[in-house]
Amino acid sequence: MKNIIVYILLLLSPTLLLSNTNPRYYVQIDDNISNDTIMQSKDILFSDNSSNLKSAIIPHHTLWIKDISYDNPLIKTSKAKRLEYNQTIFYHIENPSLSLLTKLEELLPNKSDINLMGWTSINSFYYGVMFSLLIYVIFFSYIFKHKSFLYYSYAHIAIIIFLLDADGWLQKIFWNSHPLLSIVTIPIAMILSISLIAIFSRMLLSIKEVSKKMDNILIILILINIISSLSIFFISSDMANIAIQYTTFTTLVFLIYTTLYILFTNQYSSQRYFVVLWGVLLISLLVEHLRYLGYIPSNVLTSFIFKIVLFFELITISMITISQRYTQLEKEIREVKKSAKENEKKLSQLNFDEKRLQHKHDLLNKLAGTDALTGLYNRREYFNICESLIFRAKNEFAPYAMMMLDLDHFKSVNDTYGHDIGDLVLKSVTKAITEAKREDDIFGRIGGEEFAFFMPNTTSKEAEEIANSFCKLVSRLQIDTGKEIIKVTVSIGLASDANRQFTLSELMKSSDIALYQAKENGRNRVVSVEGMPR
């Protein structure tokens, strides 16, 4: 509701501004001139005297009022004959044309003032509507950021300025005391509007794609228009106005020809209605141009056809252009969403592939550092892990210990039951110890039936308790071969480094010596040493 109110105020603001602006120059009919002379003649009399307005109104006939307060070669196409009757000055002009202030149609003498004000209000209301539509178009042109649509908006601004100046409103509102400014502003607004319309037509009709030759001609005409508009500041106004007349006329005719060519050669058949409407606007603009220059008479049709077409064109083409641009944006949004969905799917697939590759990489790393039979760390991986743990322990001043484990009489197990049962024994022993070990302990198979066990953050006493528990755990195992139950024992050599002064190889050597002593002392036992044995 608020938006509607704001829009109505914008619509009425030019109306309120212009409706109180009365024309300065009125028709003057003297008693010595008969009404029959006025009615039968093709000529029209104009006066610079504002008295006796009511007596100038002929009932049921149309009179045109024209501002001829200054001599403008561009505006006046035929010489004005100065006449005087009883101290009243008249201007007698054949084929009156430019700067029409208002039209008095079927006015009664007693209501001439009221009807004159009413027509003026209707005329200003027209500009109010056009200003509101322009605001609407400019708003969307800046939202869409479409280059051709911006040129379309600028062209219509120039057209409205030209019409306001030609109808005398700009002079009366902004430079009433400087009427000669219209000599400059009217031709500049005219040529600017034609140039911008040419640029927009070039984009709208895609003339470059239709005919490169036509496109080059149009570009040349646009440049000539720009040059001729600058000439008004450097050469006489008569010569400048003649140059502007010919360049704008030539440009308009060429634009109409190009539009008709595109229309009748079935170019852009899907937008045929769009092209037809644009062609009608160009033709009506040509009529307005010729009427303004005095080449065709000023009547109801020629004076209002362009304004009417411009009004409906601004609504229709703007809505069509906005609708098409909106449809295009929707299509682009759909394509972006589709592309985003496809990219998301590809990204998801890439993430899945990356995880799968990472899993395989981890698996390969694990297999590279894992014993295939028992699943424990192999010799290389065990040494690498222990090296880093010992380095950390020395930096943190933490105790650690290592044990070497060897299955007793394992060779006789292989010889008696075969290697399959030997493998079963190895897996059963490693499984039992793995389930019993702490989370931070490192368990690896060094080779054959020999294992290594590293215990970080462990004192020699704690390590000895763990080793004895493993020894008892293995001795209580009952391994089912399918034919009989066999039992095995393990010998353990334990070495600890309370002073954190030995390398990994030195620690392993100590635990290996302790293991040898355990076997020499009868097996199925733990022998513990601290430091390097002598």
Automatic annotation (TrEMBL):
The keyword Membrane applies. Pfam families: 7TMR-DISM_7TM, GGDEF. The chain crosses the membrane at residues 125-144, 151-170, 182-205, 217-236, 242-264, 273-292, 304-322. Keywords: Coiled coil, Membrane, Transmembrane, Transmembrane helix. One of its GO terms (biological process) is negative regulation of bacterial-type flagellum-dependent cell motility. InterPro entries: 7TMR_DISM_rcpt_extracell_dom1, Diguanylate_Cyclase, GGDEF_dom, Nucleotide_cyclase, Rev_trsase/Diguanyl_cyclase. Residues 398-531 form the GGDEF domain. GO terms for cellular component: plasma membrane. GO terms for molecular function: diguanylate cyclase activity. This is GAF domain/sensory box/EAL domain protein. It comes from hydrothermal vent metagenome. The lineage of its organism: unclassified sequences, metagenomes, ecological metagenomes.
